[in-house]
Amino acid sequence: MNLFRRLAVLGAAAFALCVTAPAQAAEGPVVRTPDGALLGVAENGVSVFKGIRYAQPPVGPNRWRPPVPAPKWQGGLRATEFGPACWQPVPRAQSIYSDPPAKMAEDCLFLNVWAPPNAKGAPVMVWIHGGSLVGGFSHAGIYDGARLAKQGVVVVSINYRLGILGYLAHPGLSAESPQKVSGNYGLLDQIEALRWVKRNIAAFGGDPSQVTIAGESAGGLSVMYLMAAPDARGLFSKAIAQSAYMISMPELKARRFGEMPAEAIGAALAAKLGAADVAQLRAASAQDLVNAAPATGYFPLGTVDGKVLPRQLVEVFDRGEQAPVPILAGSNSGEIRSLRFLVPPPPATAAEYEAAIRARYGDLADAFLKLYPSADYKESMLSTTRDALYTWTAERLVRRQTALGRPSYLYFWDHGFPASDSIGLHGFHGGEIPFAFGTLDRTPPNWPKAEPDARETALSDAMVGYWASFVKSGRPTAAGAPDWPAFGEQQAYMAFEDKPQAKTDVEPGAYELYEEVVCRRRAAGDQNWNWNVGVIAPDLPPKASCT
């Protein structure tokens, strides 16, 4: 029996149930959303709806335009297979993160839903995948939402446009825009997905007023963008930022903080690709564009355009203009161990390292060398980049949300296991994800595998509990695990080591150092605050006031 006839057989009574929770048909769960009816699958004890289109395809003449909501449909649609990932370069080198999608397309604006059976008014978590805004996809096994759904959370994972297709700014694109801006298309996709959730999630048993945005790495960066974006206001009530990085961004038309204007970056990129104008860019194949752009040095970031992103992130958060929501944020002890391309070649000797630091950091050199000594300078260089990008960002987020009077929770992931520690990846970037999702058996092919023994299982159980309870209540708790205190005056955080332990003052002195460095760079106006730290830092500007 086809789906249309099956829905007719189910009748009006069954559809009435679908308004608040998936109804179970013989073939699978069925929901009737405001946009139309969907047939999903029952997997791992939860209802799963895969490959739901939330926006129309941004292809051909619609490339580099804001997303348009997907049209409603008549009858029923199958949501039993994941949609294609957004176009991205195929990795040239194997890494622990290598997990190329089976299918890619420009028509890629799909999302997936994991819902508890018989859910009604359940809190919602919208997951935004990482991948440097260049790669990744919503249905990677490591992001399977079944375990969190069993905790009473409706989980949504989303695709969004990536790389040149998602973040290109260009004078020609700005000229044709009603707002006279360009770039940020991937971010606009994320906002459109949140609008879809607000309209439709009640049909899956979710509460549209209790939506937590969550993401790791570029997903954490996206969480901060959403917190700063006026168009996203009111679409979420809590935020989780894992290994986010509050780096400087190009501004649409102005050269600022050492960055070319975003439109100039886009024009230069188009020239390198042999495209004279936007029409020629649109005529090129999506696959050719995403493969060619990285080779030119293009790196996608959000654009400060005064509309979608009104200011630099540091300015938004300093002015208290971000979304006033509870936050859970953190970083990992070994972030850079698996991201060594972010670290410059080390000097030949400890003396050369110390001389370079003193030359670059001036009156802050003693404080810098106390944190990152020359005695083990190669290790110090890993910690320098880690703290400048991730540790500082996580603490800054919880400090700023605390100042707004919102519950704010900090963590530091310092967990290792034989498969990670044996290859020098203790506490590596992203290592917490499968523990928080309960997907230790669903990691990418080259990912260090944690044995499903009592220790690892207990730690994952605690992580799943903390994340799920934060989504539910704004306060992370877990059965059989320590209380997680808010950051507050004690600067409390949860250390995830062999087991969770509540501590205070993560990486003492690091936040204060980088806050001062970023303050001076902002005041100077001609230096960015990305990974140009340590031995490759520009000379530190003079002391300035940022208050």
Nutshell version of this structure?
The protein is an alpha/beta fold and 547 residues long. 33% of the residues lie in helices and 16% in strands.
Count of discrete alpha- or pi-helical segments spanning 4 or more residues: 17
Which homologous superfamily in CATH is the superfamily? Alpha/Beta hydrolase fold, catalytic domain
Class from secondary-structure proportions = alpha/beta
Estimate percent helicity: 25-40%
Low-confidence stretches: 1-20
Main CATH class? Alpha Beta
Shape: globular
Q: What oligomeric state best describes the polypeptide chains here?
A: single chain
What CATH architecture would you give? 3-Layer(aba) Sandwich
**Lateral strand order in the biggest sheet:** 4-5-9-11-10-12-13-14-15-16-17
Q: Average pLDDT across residues?
A: 94
Which keywords apply here?
547 residues; alpha/beta; Rossmann fold; 11-stranded mixed β-sheet; 4-stranded mixed β-sheet; 17 helices; disordered N terminus
